[in-house]
Amino acid sequence: MGRSPCCDKVGLKKGPWTPEEDQKLLAYIEERGHGNWRALPAEAGLQRCGKSCRLRWTNYLRPDIKRGKFSLQEEQTIIQLHALLGNRWSAIATHLPKRTDNEIKNYWNTHLKKRLAKMGIDPVTHKPKTDALLSADGQSKNAANLSHMAQWESARLEAEARLVRQSKLRSNSIENEINQSSSSAAAAAQRSHHHSPPPRCLDVLRPWRRVSGPWPPINGAVGNVGGDLESPTSTLSFSENGAAHPLSAGGTADDATGMIEFMGNAGEVLVKEEGGDEEWKSFGNSTNHLPQYNEGIENSITFSSGLHDMTISMEGFTELLLSNSGGRNLSESDSGSGGGGGSGDGSGGSDYYDDSKNYWNSILNLVDSSPSNSPLF
DNA sequence: AATGAATACAACCGCGAAGTC
DNA sequence: CGACTTCGCGGTTGTATTCAT
Fold first, then answer.
1. Do A77 and A54 share a structural domain?
2. What is the average pLDDT score of chain A?
3. Taking residues A205-224, what's their average pLDDT?
4. pLDDT digits (tens, 9 = 90+) for A234-277
5. Are residues A264 and A346 in the same domain?
6. DSSP symbol at A57
7. What's the predicted TM-score (pTM) here?
8. Is residue A375 part of a domain?
9. Quick one: where's region Disordered (predicted)?
């Protein structure tokens, strides 16, 4: 159990990889794939432990990795997902194609965390550091509401992760059959990093996206938008009392293997994976409340507890987050942009940081704009 | 030009989950 | 069913590079 002893062996090299080692590892994986990481180093003629080889491959050598500077869209996605998921880098990475969890984690620690801190936002909680802002009433409840959304998304991600694993197993077995008759390096490389169905977008955020399309660039200022973050669609529905409301109608023709549904049943959260074992799995807790996407009310989700309703307006949410969490692009629209504006990239002006102090407050204000204003939770 | 601080990124470590026997 | 292996994840460290003085 637990720790692998492979790295304890003497004589194994540690530290930075040389180009020769990279070449050996690449050549081996291209030719034979990586079946067993533990056995791989010896077979590939590397004086490394399997773990080190796996890390080097997954974080650096894999051909489907996009390296280099993070785009603004990617930054914003990371911030948003981190607000929802916390330090679950692998989960975040599934929504950032071609980026590794390690890279995202490093980027967060070296760039984004500091940037949020400068903005006066606690990078852990994504709340303003002056907690006095969160009084005992309204806003703290609203934060709890957002926390519920995060819980659901976490549960969904866990379910998706299992789907991905199952899908991977299936595809691997199929491809193994195919590759019996094919030994081309290209095919092997494809096999070796064919992990899963393409990552899907974060469904909790999808209603935000629907407001103005898939992650629209603010002011059209940012290149490299859209394509990098393109995500096939999974179907997610929140429902309560058996009434399902598809959050996303835009099912794309990817080869994703399943549909995941969230079902609220007397306060219990159930997750069903279609194509899986056809069972409803409980992540439940009777204190949770299930959001409903309001098809009649554009861009809104209603949280209903049976006694109380609260509707979150999605209108402007995307813009708000993008405006306040990113920043680099904001300098181009900082003239009289009201609440969403900002300026500079930190090295430029300070207005950006001033405005960004409203990052979370603004989110909460949106939440607080419930038509019913009913006390909740 | 030298040097120390800050930054960025690659890599390692240890733990827990999942899988296998 | 428990022991063991393997893998993946998140936290942390080490090192190279850049910047400031």
1. no
2. 54
3. 35
4. 333 333 333 333 333 333 333 333 333 333 333 333 333 333 33
5. yes
6. I
7. 0.52
8. no
9. 174-201, 325-351
Q: Å from A110 (CA) to B4 (C1')?
A: 20
Check if residue A17 sits with its Cβ under 7 angstroms from strand C: no
Structural domain of residue A249, as residue ranges?
72-189+199-368
Indicate if the pLDDT at residue A345 is higher than 50.
Answer: no
Q: In sequence order, what DSSP letters do the residues of A117-129 get, joined into one string?
A: HHTTB-TTT-SBS
Question: What DSSP string runs through A84-138?
Answer: HH-S-HHHHHTTSTT--HHHHHHHIIIIIHHHHHHTTB-TTT-SBS-GGGS-TTH
d(CA A173, CA A351): 55
Gap from A87 CA to C17 C1', in Å?
A: 27
Quick one: pLDDT at residue A296?
36
Residues 29-88 of A with CB under 7 A from strand C: 35-38, 50-51, 54, 87-88
Q: From the CA of A104, how many Å to the C1' of C12?
A: 15
- Give all strands of the β-sheet with A290-293 in edge-to-edge order: A290-293, A300-304, A309-313
Q: Per-residue pLDDT tens for A3-19?
A: 334 444 567 788 888 88
